[in-house]
């Protein structure tokens, strides 16, 4: 089969497709014929040598969409539409950057849809992270105001549209003034150009601050996000687009504003129930959940795709169509 294999950290342009053996699934595992996979920031970290738990060689990819090829344990039927994500994919065992991937049955979600494969391939990890951050990390409620820091990222876009669907008022940031219209088109109520002082801009509109904030940029802007949040509000740290993920000499009393809660989210596929994923897929298919795909690549264009991801040039999800 064709696959992208990492022997160690490389530049994007060094990524190549290789021929490797088709993997065999043990009982409790499922072999998926991959039709499409989305690109994720954690795969950039792995490829660039920034991941702390990397092992090589490995086929990267923490998500995939396709059909069941073989399920020795009988959990799924051959030909069944499925997606898979997380659970160690692309780190502890080979992931989705291949024509076939073998994953634990617990990481597989069945789905029924007429969506094209590129669109379905964009959804699993993006929706899982957005759904988990909003509901597990933040516990959002209709009528609240939400700030999405990193609003034009794939997860940021998904979080904004899911929050609007749930009845929230949404603030979302972008560093590029030309992208504010994209955010408006997605339904964002208050696009904000991020100049490092987002809290002041949020409080000009909402003097008490937002009740919930999703931090996707990193710890370098986290203090400003906390300042934008109301007393008894919550900030969920769920991403590090800036590659900044630690807080040196963290002193909570000095760091956290009075009464503002800080949580984190880094969950698994089990946090997104199959029925919730199917509902989101149906909403996307009906045109009621506007998910933005920036570009679809072939496997042979993986280097270009990773360069765009690394440089932060995309607005929305980058997807690779396998066949």
TrEMBL record:
One of its GO terms (molecular function) is oxidoreductase activity, acting on NAD(P)H. The keyword ATP-binding does not apply. Transmembrane segments: none annotated. Signal peptide: none annotated. InterPro entries: ADH-like_N, ER, GroES-like_sf, NAD(P)-bd_dom_sf. SMART domains: PKS_ER. Residues 8-320 form the Enoyl reductase (ER) domain. Keywords: NADP, Oxidoreductase. The keyword Transcription regulation does not apply. This is NADPH:quinone reductase. It comes from Kribbella sindirgiensis. The lineage of its organism: Bacteria, Bacillati, Actinomycetota, Actinomycetes, Propionibacteriales.
């Amino acid at each position: 089969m064709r696959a992208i294999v990492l022997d160690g950290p490389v530049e994007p342009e060094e990524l190549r497709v290789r021929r490797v053996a088709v993997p065999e699934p043990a009982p409790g595992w499922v072999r998926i014929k991959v039709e499409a996979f989305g690109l994720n920031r954690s795969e950039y970290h792995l490829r660039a040598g920034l991941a702390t738990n990397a092992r090589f060689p490995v086929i990267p990819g923490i998500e995939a969409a396709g059909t069941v090829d073989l399920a020795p344990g009988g959990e799924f039927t051959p030909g069944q539409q499925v997606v898979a994500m997380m659970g160690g994919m692309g780190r502890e065992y080979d992931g989705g950057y291949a024509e076939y991937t073998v994953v634990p049955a617990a990481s597989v979600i069945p789905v029924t849809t007429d969506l094209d494969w590129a669109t379905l391939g964009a959804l699993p990890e993006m929706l899982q992270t957005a759904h988990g951050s909003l509901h597990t990390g933040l516990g959002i409620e209709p009528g609240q105001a939400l700030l999405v820091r990193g609003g034009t990222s794939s997860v940021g876009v998904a979080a904004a549209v899911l929050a609007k669907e749930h009845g929230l008022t949404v603030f979302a940031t972008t560093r590029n003034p030309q992208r504010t219209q994209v955010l408006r088109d997605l339904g964002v109520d208050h696009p904000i150009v991020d100049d490092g002082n987002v809290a002041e801009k949020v409080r000009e509109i909402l003097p008490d601050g937002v009740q919930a904030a999703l931090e996707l940029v990193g710890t370098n802007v986290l203090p400003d996000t906390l300042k934008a949040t109301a007393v008894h509000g919550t900030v969920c740290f769920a991403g590090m687009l800036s590659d900044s993920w630690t807080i040196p000499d963290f002193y909570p009393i000095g760091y956290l504003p009075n009464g503002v809660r800080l949580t984190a989210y880094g969950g698994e596929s089990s946090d997104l129930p199959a029925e919730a994923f199917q509902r989101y897929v149906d909403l996307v298919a009906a045109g009621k959940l506007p998910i933005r795909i920036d570009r679809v690549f072939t496997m042979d264009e993986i280097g270009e795709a990773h360069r765009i991801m690394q440089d932060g040039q995309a607005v929305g999800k980058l997807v690779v169509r396998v066949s």
